[in-house]
Design a protein that fits this description.
Number of domains: 1
Strand content: under 5%
Structural class: mainly alpha
Largest sheet: none
Order of helices and strands: HHH
Oligomer: single chain
Number of strands: 0
Number of helices: 3
């Protein structure tokens, strides 16, 4: 990834404006930053996921 960033910094070929950043890269960078800080995020349980999905269904009404 660093080589790609160096190439973009040298001659990005992009107009100076905001450009979309792929979500998968955003998650990867965030995960690496959290790992460097020795922070972990737990996964929600199946029961929590079902509760959230039910809440979203009722919120649409």
């Amino acid at each position: 990834m660093t080589r790609g960033l160096a190439k973009l910094a040298g001659d990005p070929g992009l107009e100076p404006e905001l450009h979309p950043f792929p979500a998968r890269f955003d998650r990867e960078v965030a995960a690496e930053k959290l790992a460097a800080m020795d922070v972990s995020i737990d996964e929600i349980t199946a029961a929590q996921r079902r509760y959230h999905e039910q809440w979203e269904e009722h919120d649409d009404e």
